[in-house]
């Protein structure tokens, strides 16, 4: 699938997962949809949106793939997407600090699309590799751990926030 088309599909699915639970209140959507505006929830949305996008891609073009380089490359890209979002998102706060709501929302759309493009480029290169059994197992384990943490922390937040100094906690 074309990287830009896939990134647009990812952006669309991201939007659906962002507002899916909030707009419907359907409990079964809570593990994969955003439940608030925290950075964590946006990383979770990116993870699941890219996974669903890759699943749709597989359904469309599965006949062209022999072997399993498709899923290994896509699974690694799914694991990378939240971290790509994190790295790109924090450029604006690092450089400009607090910005207006319009700038923040515009930046959010740009970051989401760019994270899809970057993941798409990475996965296309990874697709050319031959993965060893150990790499496949590690990729699967990292995917399962990521999915578990995103779902688990939806219901039980960890004891510490990412940017809070632990010595300042009561």
Architecture overview:
It is a single chain. By secondary structure, the protein is an all-alpha fold. The chain has one domain. The longest helix is centred in the last third of the chain and has 26 residues. It is globular.
What is the succession of H and E elements? HHHHHH
Whole-angstrom Rg: 17 Å
Strand content: under 5%
Question: Percent range for helical residues?
Answer: over 70%
Largest sheet: none
Mean pLDDT: 92
Outline of this structure?
With 170 residues, this protein is mainly alpha-helical. The protein is 71% helix and 0% strand.
Set out the fold topology.
Blueprint: H1 3-24, H2 39-61, H3 69-89, H4 91-95, H5 101-126, H6 133-155
Q: What distinguishing features does this structure have?
A:
0% strand; mainly alpha
């Amino acid at each position: 699938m074309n990287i830009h088309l896939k990134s647009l599909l990812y952006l669309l699915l991201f939007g659906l997962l962002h507002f899916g639970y909030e707009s419907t209140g359907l409990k079964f959507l809570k593990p994969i949809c955003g439940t608030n505006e925290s950075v964590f929830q946006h990383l979770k949305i990116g993870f699941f949106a890219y996974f669903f996008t890759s699943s749709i891609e597989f359904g469309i073009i599965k006949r062209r793939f022999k072997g399993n380089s498709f899923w290994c490359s896509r699974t690694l890209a799914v694991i990378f997407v939240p971290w790509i979002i994190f790295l790109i998102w924090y450029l604006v706060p690092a450089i400009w600090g607090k910005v207006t709501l319009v700038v923040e929302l515009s930046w959010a759309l740009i970051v989401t699309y760019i994270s899809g493009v970057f993941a798409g480029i990475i996965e296309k290169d990874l697709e050319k590799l031959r993965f060893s059994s150990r790499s496949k197992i590690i990729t699967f384990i990292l995917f399962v751990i990521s999915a578990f943490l995103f779902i688990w922390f939806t219901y039980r937040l960890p004891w510490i926030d990412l940017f809070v100094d632990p010595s300042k906690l009561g």
